[in-house]
Amino acid sequence: MKKVIFIGYIKMIWNKYFHQTLILSLPLILSSFSQILLGIIDLLMVASLGVVAVASVAFVNILAPLMLTISFGLSSAFLIKIAYAYGAKNVESGAEEFRYAMIFSVITGIAQCFFFIGLMFILAKLGQPEEVVAMTPPYLFWVALSLIPATPALVLKSFTDAQNDPWAGVSILLATVILNIVLNYMLIHGHWGAPKLGLLGAGVATFIARTMAFFAIFFYVFFRKKFRAYHPKKWFKPIKKSQLMDLLAMSLAISGQGLIMYGAFSITAIFMGIIGTVALASHQIALVCAMSGSIIPWGISFAVTIRVGHALGESKVHDTMSIFIGAQCLSGIVMGGVAALFMLQGRALLGVFFTELELIDFTTSLLFIVGAYQLFDSSQIISLGALRGYKDVYKPTMVLFSIFWLFALPFGAVLAFYLQYGGLSLWVGLAIGIMVCAVTLTLRFICLYRLMLSRH
Predict the structure, then answer these.
(1) Mean pLDDT across the stretch 96-111?
(2) Got the DSSP string for 107-162?
(3) Confidence tier at 212 by pLDDT (50, 70, 90)
(4) How far apart are the first and last CA of the chain?
(5) Cβ-count burial of 22 within 10 angstroms (0-12 exposed, 13-18 middle, 19+ buried)?
(6) Half-sphere exposure of residue 289, counting CA atoms within 13 Å on the CB side?
(7) What does the pLDDT look like over 133-161, one tens digit per residue?
(8) Per-residue exposure over 108-129, b if at least 16 CB sit within 10 Å of its own CB, e if not
(9) pTM to 2 decimals?
(10) Quick check: 346 and 293 in contact, CB under 8 A?
């Protein structure tokens, strides 16, 4: 009897805190992973063309995420709004938000494209080697063009995600990765009757793959009966300035969060370069490891945003705390394993890929710091997702800016350069910043939850 009661209690806990978030998170984690794979595939498949080609792709792949951060901000803002509309079963509002997001995404994609193309004319002024400056423009041009279909594709994917249909989007993205591999094989080296385009072929392949992804998810959204209620009856009619500006402001705030965090690590890379080549290389390796580890909490975070939006749309404020707690525990368990891997097996992991002892020693120390803050980083990411579900994006952006740029970066720089503690202290500053952010954002969610409860 006691065993039956215990099993029933465990099932109740599982269903209340973990089940729905886990089911929704899995495809979203795969989506994040597939986005990273596109850049990695280009890098690996041009390796046979030489060091200059690799450097060109690496340089473009450093800049492209900055552009996609804006697209991510727009798709995330729309995700929040459509999740609310879906939860409240407010079809008319959802259709209007869909109209604004699609129009704005097309404009955003075109603007990003032209901005990115403009970089071709100032490559020499960015301090890059002459051979890289000469080879990069054709590849950069086609990657820039790919931003035009990529931005509305992200919005369409958010549309399906917010309505508990994430597998269609992730299937299309994974198919895009496979298509990109095939096209790279054909166009870079001229296989199967295709022209041999070299590095240019990698850019053309990325453009074709992203364009096909857009058309695939476009037809899925507009030809599935289940989504028709949310299709705008008229696409071209007067726009409510207040509604459009609200979407724009929310998009910029979420984009700002990504730029603040990405920018902090980019500035740290510059500081590491001042210290030395080994320090810079170690920083890049540790950063790749840290970003790879954070894919899982980011996927869970998107699921939290959707589920919190649904709950608030249905006026079920109580459910948001159980969603938050379940996601924090789920992400914490996974990231505890990642932290243990980095802290205890960092050297063994690096030894598989590298042989230079100085590089391995320095990077092992950085990975220990990365492991030490993993649980806090996980908590920070989940809290950001929950706060987005509450449509709370402006103050968290200010929190991130204040802690990372006014405290963590200066603190690390003082330790590294003024007190002469070396490059490790730069990451110590970032780690402390992440820990402070995690605590601050968690407390903010709790305060907002209590405030919302008091109003219902």
Answers:
(1) 83
(2) HHHHHHHHHHHHGGGGGGGGT--HHHHHHHHHHHHHHHHHHHHHHHHHHHHHHHHT
(3) very high
(4) 39
(5) middle
(6) 28
(7) 677 778 888 888 888 888 888 888 888 88
(8) bbeebbeebbebeeebeeeeee
(9) 0.80
(10) no
Q: Kindly state the greatest CA–CA separation across the chain.
A: 77
Tokens of 83: 């999740």
- Count Cβ atoms below 10 Å from residue 422 Cβ, excluding itself: 15
Query: Does residue 73 contact residue 254 with C-beta atoms inside 8 Å?
Result: yes
Residue 208 amino acid letter = I
201: Cβ contacts below 8 Å, ≥ 6 apart: 183, 184, 186, 187, 188, 189, 194, 195
Kindly give the residue spans of alpha helices, DSSP state H, lying in 314-456.
317-351, 357-389, 394-403, 409-413, 424-454
Q: CA 10, CA 18: separation in Å to the nearest integer?
A: 11
Q: For residues 158 and 302, what is the distance between their CA atoms, to the nearest angstrom?
A: 10
Cβ atoms 388, 80 nearer than 8 A: yes
How many helices and strands in the chain, by DSSP H and E? 15, 0
DSSP 373-384: HHHHHHHHHHHH
Structure tokens of 123?
Answer: 């490559």
